[in-house]
Structures
1.
Amino acid sequence: MEIVEWVRDHPVAALVITCEVAFWVFLAAAVVARYVLRRRRLSTVLLLCEPLIEVVLLVATVTDLLRGAEATWTHGLAALYLGFTVAFGRYTVHKVDGWVAWRLFDGPRPPRVPSGGRAKVVHEWKLWLRVLLAWAVAVAVLGVLLLIADDPAQRQVLLGWAGRATLVMGIWFLAGPVWQVFADSAGDDDAPDTDDAPETPADHPTSHPAHPTP
């Protein structure tokens, strides 16, 4: 079968897909254990399995190169996936947990993403810091793989993925916090200035002369 042959030719890529599926399976199981079965301890244990998925992928990726495999795009993909899961894995778990509790089990409504203003700027900076963490983890993993890879062509492949990670980080920086900072500043400039507003009679009440007393 073609799928079996593809998995045989790209074992690391197949493992990345498997890890992603396992992430959502464990998350769904944890939600069911917490809200349907009312077993919070079991839910916690299932969520603790999430980091083990990342460890398995990291060990398998490094071991694949140590055994003499050629460094390809699959190893770069695994490095970026590890960076993403480290930075956004727990964040995604909290988002899903809050949404399920609110929609299905009468839990409190999760806080909405700010639509503008200073709160939106802070939100975008926090998201970008997660991207920065993802970039740092991905580059660190790629650095380890570069130490293992001997062939210059293979090293170029890994360096290319480091470049892609850096490009994503830069685009997110410009399209996220930087854009929001300028948008927020523009919104402040467009706001009406009360000092320049036209004066109304209410601002200067007419003073009536006092009536002479008889």
2.
Amino acid sequence: MADHPTGGPPGPGQLAGLRIISATVAITLVLIAAASWFALDSGFTGHPTLGWAAAVAAPVISLALGRMVGLLDLPVSTPADLRSAYATHFLITMAATEAPGILLFALGFIADLSALQVSIGMVLTAAVVWTSLRPTRRRAEEFARRRLPDGTDAQFFIDQF
């Protein structure tokens, strides 16, 4: 096994940390959704159409933002740069995909939405966050393929997944 400098690939412990973070973010959104049953009105006192539109829009916007983050051109010139680029991509994706769920929760208070509407939207957003964030070998291969110049060997990075 080659000795990698500090900027080398994330180790198994670091990848486990990314997996824990991605699960924690999704679980936190579900827990906030559960808390909304206590904090928000269980009836439909606000505008019902707005509530259902927001419940559907939050995961759709989350998915769109997650895809848009994939279009960012992060500077990677060598395989050693993959680690920091992957971490940056992960954190930007996390922020972009969880934001619509958090905003839905705030909208629940502002527009007096039903706890059911907010919960459904947040649970669906949590599912989008989980599927957009979780580090997998396939995603690492795709990330390296899109970021590195053709013919560059990134196997040491991919093997960490």
3.
Amino acid sequence: MALMSVVFMSMYALQTDEELAMHTLFHGKHALNRAVHAAAQQSDQDKLAEGIYAIDESKAKSVALQYLQANLRLDAANHPLPNTFLQDEVVVELFKIVNEGEVFPYTYTNSAYGYSVTLDRPGVIMFIRLAFPRTYTVLQPITWRIKCSAEMVF
């Protein structure tokens, strides 16, 4: 009977960790999606006055980080705030702006990360690395590379 209890508790811990892991992954994807979409909407006002659709690169990066930090509850260095679920730094592995200097449709390919996207207008591409803080030690450590892109809306 004791053996069955141990097996049952191990299976329960595994199921709990798997569900929390999926929830964490989706939360990270949604946070990155919001950040990239916000960044892609940062118009360069000087170029827009000339009729050129372009993204203001410094504003875009700043806004993307602000959205990511707000949605994942991170500090300015992308470390989790005290008493939050995440435990490890969220690493921005790639932040790329595809701007008006490119010929559209523009296909961005990153074979190292297995990612390809075609943009029809200026846009932003961003990758982050997010680690799952395991509740139990039943699962092996999980780290995701989450990828997202968004185009300027006009």
4.
Amino acid sequence: MISEEKIVNWLAVKSDVNVKMFPERDELTQLRLQKLLYFLQGTYLSLYDEKLFDDDLVHADYGPLAVKAHAKYEGKRNLNSLINWEQALKDFSELNNIPKVSLVLNSVFNKYADVSTSTLVDITHHQKPWISAKSGEEISPKVLKEFFDSIVVQANA
């Protein structure tokens, strides 16, 4: 499993470049981070039958929420000022050199790079993992994997 902080750093670097190239796109906020962590975890579970990072996802009002990441960034909207950019660049490079991890990070990020954060919330609100859990309940990794198995295109299929 990869450290969730390294994944957040990777997302921060990728998002920063993305917004500089396309200013109309949404910055990495706490809410956007939560949705991307959900999509990353589900995709990784589907492809490799293991978690990408060790954190529980729970049903929250605005969609799936990664508990540890939420606790760390609670009350913060824009995450850029909280990122140690020197470390983030190291983590970005490190994760890009792990083929399985890089594939999932880049695929998920690229799929949702131009999707607004509010649309990401809407998407997650219509997906079985969020619907099947009650408010505050953990989203079962089994349910998450089963759902993503139905939407992730397997490279070897």
